[in-house]
Specification:
Chain A is mainly beta and 274 residues long. Chain A is built from three helices and 14 strands. Helix content of chain A is 9%, strand content 46%.
Chain lengths: 274, 274, 274, 274
C-alpha cells in the first residue's frame, strides 16, 4: 500500500517517511516545551544607514519605520531541545518596518536574511515559516582583551567581521516586544518548470507577544561591523546578498548589545499576513 | 523605491537581493553550459528487496516497476561550474517505478531521498526542482586493498556504510535512459500557519532524454550497504528516514558499479507531471 | 646570512622563522598572564578498575597510588589568551600514582593520554612539556533533559561516549592539589634513522602548587563512560590506545563532576624528574 | 607489571599503549609496501626570489644552490595504505641548497615548512623524521575555466592563494632526483624546563634515490602564489612563518606543474646528516 499523509501533521520533503521532524514536531508528534531549551548568547551591532538603500531591500507594502537603523545580530545557541541537546548559530540582519497589506497591518522588524550553520533548521525555517535562511559557517567568536570578534564565512571566504567592545552590564531591557507586532518575513517558493512563477509568495509574521525567552544577563557597549566585497567566484550563490550589505552606508554606529538568555518558543504561531 | 521582481528570472529566498543564484542562473543571469563541468565519480550498490516495503515509500499514483530492486548511490563531484569550480557529494536511494497521473504517465526511478553535503544545492534542488534533498556529511571514501568504503553521518552519528569490491572494468553502459523517462520526485511545500496544508504538492520529472553526462570509465563488481538503526537522540530530524532503510529487507545483492563521468545538464527541463 | 637561534628563547620546528609561538611565548616573546583567559568547563567521570590493568599502562618507576580509580575528563575551553581569544577542547585519562625516580619522588596523577581537537597545542604540549597529546574531534556536548553527553571521534569513527546526570551544585572543592605534587608525564622522542632509540625519554611534572585556575561553579553527580572497540581500519594510528581503555574493567562508577573555571597557568614551571 | 618497551620497535607518545602506529609501522608491526597507495596530485609554482632573503631561512651549514628559486607545492593524496585508505593534503615550500656538515655533504632541497591538514602524519613526521610540519586547512582546489585555485587557511584566516593556468600536457619529467641527494630538514626538539636548550637539533635527509613514486600524467604552465600578511591575532602560532613568505620578493615566476602520481616510500631510510 502506498504512502499516505496523516491528517493534521506537518510534512516536509521527503514526505514518504512520515511527518517532518523539527522544532514544531518531534518524535511521535510531540511538542517541545522545555523552558530550559535554547541557551542563547546574542551579540548585536546597530548602525544608522541610508534610508533609500534600506528601502531597496524591502518588498512592496513595506516601509522603513522611524530612523533607518539596521541591526546585525549573531546568536550562538546550545542545549536545543528539538535537536536532542545540540546547538547551532545564526547571523541575521533586520530593518525596522511597517507593513501595510490589503488586510493586515503590522509594525516590527523585517528579517532580510538569516544565515545559519546547520541545514536542518534552514529547511524547516524556509519552508514552514518563510524565514529567509541560508547557510554559512559561524565559528565561535574570539574573545580577547575585552573585545569580542565574530566572523562569518562560506567555503573559506570570510564575508563578515563584527567586533564588540567597551561592554558594561546593562539592566534587563524593557520588553520592547510590547510595542512591536513581531518579526516580518517574505516567503517565496518558485514553481517547478514555470521559471519566474511562484508556488507561494506571501508575507509572514513571527508574533512578538508570545516570546518565551528569559533574559539572564545583558551588556551594552560599542561595536562595528563590516561585510566584505565578494566576487561571483568567492560566493557564487550569495555574492549579491553580501555586496548589498557591503554597499550599505554606515552613517553612525548606534551601539552593541550582548544578551544571555534561556528559552524559545517553537514558532508554531507563525502566520500569513495579507 | 521598494524591491521589485525582474520578470522572467527565477527567485529564491531571500528575494530582495535579486534573482536566485544557482545551477540554472548565474551572475548576471547567465547559463552554465561548460561540458567540462561536474567531474563525477558515482558508486552504487543495488539489492533485491521486499515489494511491499518499497510500496510504502511511494506516493499515490506510483507503483514498483519490475523487480523490487533498490539502488543506493554515492556521487563525489568536483569542478562544478555553477560553484565556480568547487565540488560536493550526494547520497541517494532510488526505486524503479511507473507513474500514472491524471494526465501524464512515466516510467523511471523515484528518488526517495537525496542527502547532500552542501546546503546551497539542497535549497535550489528542493525549491526549484522538488528533489527530496536533505543534509549529511559525506567524507571521501576509504579505498584500500581493492575495497572502497563509503560512509554517511549527521552530526557525528554514522548512519550508513557501503562497500564495493571485486571491481573489474566494464564497457560503457548502453544508455539505459533510452527506455526510461527519467527521475521522478514528489515536491511538497507546507503552508505557513495552516499546519497540515501545502503550498505545493506535485510530482516532478527530471527527463532522461537530455542528459549531458559523458561516461569516461566504468567498473562492475560486488557491494553491500547497511543503514544503521538510529534513535531520535541520534538523528532528531532524520531517524524515521534512516530507520526505514535499516528495516528494508535485503534479499539478494545485485552488484555494484563505479562510473567516472564528466558533464551534467542544469536541469532547467525539470517539469511538473499531472 | 643564515638563520641563527636567539639565546634564551624557546624554539619549535620550523625553527628558521624565529622562536616558537605558543602558550609560553607570544609575539615579541611576551608572556600570557591574563587572569581572564581560559574559560573552562570540565566534565569528568571516575570509576574503580582493575589494578593490574592500570599497572600495565604505567612506565617503570610508577606505581598505582591507593585505590585503582581512573578518571576520564573532557574540558571545553574558550577565550584563551595565547590563541588570541579562540578555544579548543581536550579529553584525558588519568591514573593516581606515585613516582619513585633515582633522584625525585612525587605523588600525583599520570596523564596516560590527552586528546585535543587543535594541532597547535598538541605540538607545543608534546615537544615542550612531554604531554602525551594526540588529535581527535571533540564536538560540543549534547545537553538534554538533565543529561550531558560527550563524545570523541577520529575521522568519523566515534570511539567514546561519556554521560553525566543527576548533577547537583557542589561546594567548591577543597584544593586537593595541596596533597599532590601534580600531573605526571612520560616524554619520549624517537631518534631519526636509529629506529627504536630515543632523542629524549624522561618523566616530567606539571607542579600543582602554582595552579591559577579559579573555580566559579561546580556540580557533582553520576556518570558513565564507554570506549568503543576499534579495528586498525577504524583508527589506524590509535586503535591500540582506544582498545586498552575499552578493555579496562569498570568495577564501580565513582561519580561525575562538572566544574566551570577561569584561568590557567602557562606551564612554564614544567620540569624533568629524575 | 609495568609497561616495557619492545626492543627494535619505534615509539611515539603515548608510549604506554605499545609501539607507535604510522607510515613506517602498522598493526602488529607490519610494513606498508603497496605500490597502489598514495594517489597524489601535486600542484607547484616556482619563482625567482632574493638570495639574501632565502639565506635568512637556512640553518648554518646550508647555502642557496644555483639560482634563488623557491617552489611552493600543494599535494592532495588519497588511498593511503597506512591510513587504511584515507587521504590528506599538504602544502610545502622548498629552497635549493647545498649542505656542508662536519662529516656529510649533500645537494638537494631544504623543506622550510610543510603544512598538513591531518595531525597524525604531522606528529610522525616531526618526531620520527624531522620534517617541519605544522597544521592548516587545505580544501580541495577550485578548478574552473582552465584555472586551478588552491588555498590554505588556519582557523578561518586564509593565508595563501595559489593559481595555475595555461596548463599543457608535459612529458614525464626526467627523474631530477638523480642529480640530487634528496630533501633536507632541520629537526629540533626543545628540552623540557631548560627553556632555550634542545633534546635534539640535527639535520636529516630524505634520500631521493629510493623514491617509489610513479608519474602517471603531468602538465606544465603558468602560475602565481600569494602569502597574505597576518597579524598575531590572525595566526597566533604561525604569523612569523606566513609573513616571511609574504615578504619574500617575487622577481619572476618560473612556471607551474601538475603531476598525477601513484606510490610513495615509507621514508624509513630517513637519516641524520652530521
Amino acid at each position: 500500500m502506498s504512502f499516505r499523509f496523516i491528517p493534521g501533521r506537518t510534512y516536509r520533503m521527503p514526505v514518504v517517511f512520515g511527518p517532518g521532524l523539527g522544532p514544531r514536531q518531534g518524535d511521535e508528534g510531540r511538542k517541545f516545551t522545555s523552558p530550559d531549551s535554547h541557551k542563547t548568547i546574542t551579540r548585536s551591532v546597530s548602525f544608522l544607514t541610508n534610508r533609500a538603500q534600506l528601502e531597496e531591500l524591502l518588498p512592496e507594502e513595506f516601509a522603513v519605520r522611524g530612523e533607518p537603523v539596521t541591526t546585525v545580530f549573531a546568536s550562538y545557541m546550545t542545549e536545543i531541545e528539538w535537536l536532542a541537546g545540540r546547538g547551532y548559530n545564526v547571523l541575521g540582519v533586520t530593518i525596522p518596518v511597517t507593513f501595510t497589506g490589503k488586510v493586515d497591518r503590522a509594525v516590527g522588524s523585517f528579517l532580510a536574511v538569516l544565515w545559519e550553520n546547520l541545514t536542518d533548521p534552514i529547511l524547516t525555517g524556509r519552508e514552514e515559516l518563510g524565514f529567509a535562511k541560508i547557510y554559512c559557517d559561524l565559528p565561535e567568536p574570539r574573545i580577547h582583551r575585552g573585545v569580542t570578534h565574530c566572523t562569518a564565512s562560506w567555503m573559506g571566504f570570510k564575508f563578515m567581521d563584527m567586533t564588540l567592545f567597551d561592554l558594561t552590564p546593562a539592566p534587563a531591557a524593557a520588553p520592547s516586544a510590547a510595542q512591536e507586532d513581531g518579526l516580518l518575513h517574505y516567503k517565496y517558493m518558485p514553481r517547478t518548470g514555470a521559471w519566474g512563477e511562484a508556488d507561494a509568495a506571501y508575507v509572514t509574521l513571527t508574533p512578538a507577544a508570545t516570546l518565551q525567552r528569559v533574559e539572564k544577563e545583558a551588556w551594552r557597549g560599542q561595536g562595528s561591523v563590516q561585510f566584505h566585497r565578494a566576487t561571483w567566484e568567492d560566493l557564487p550563490t550569495q555574492y549579491t546578498i553580501v555586496n548589498a550589505f557591503h554597499q550599505l552606508e554606515i552613517k553612525e554606529y548606534r551601539g552593541a548589545t550582548v544578551v544571555h538568555s534561556v528559552g524559545a518558543k517553537d514558532l508554531s504561531d507563525q502566520r500569513i499576513l495579507r
